[in-house]
Amino acid sequence: MADKNDKVKQNVSGKYYIDNTCVPCNDCLEEAPMLLKYTDDESKVYFHKQPSNPEEEIAAKKAMEICPVEAIGNDGE
Ligand code: SF4
Question: What's the rounded Cα separation, in Å, for the pair 60 and 6?
Fold first, then answer.
């Protein structure tokens, strides 16, 4: 389960986030390319945008479900 106290610092504030256990493997980017980006050093992925419509909400949920290390959470602030 993702830890909201260990967020990748670049995440935009809001419900969805990625924590520092991200590998990164790229799987989530295939599900939600409109919401996610690599950090400049490409060591992690983060939410640069929160979902703002039903399509993006589904994409964020799919990204969370597919993450092999459960680095994506939806209980952020
Ligand atoms: S699926 Fe998980 S481990 Fe892979 S890049 Fe996304 S957040 Fe990181």
Answer: 19
Domain boundaries, the chain: 17-73
Which residues does a 6 A CB cutoff place in the pocket of ligand 1? Answer: 18, 22-28, 45, 67, 69, 71-72
Mean pLDDT of 5-26: 98
Return the best residue to mutate from 44, 69, 70 for the ligand 1 pocket (most ligand atoms within 8 A of CB): 69
- Residue 8: pLDDT over 90: yes
Would the pLDDT of 45 be above 90?
yes
CATH class given for the domain over 17-73: alpha beta
pLDDT for the residue numbered 77: 84
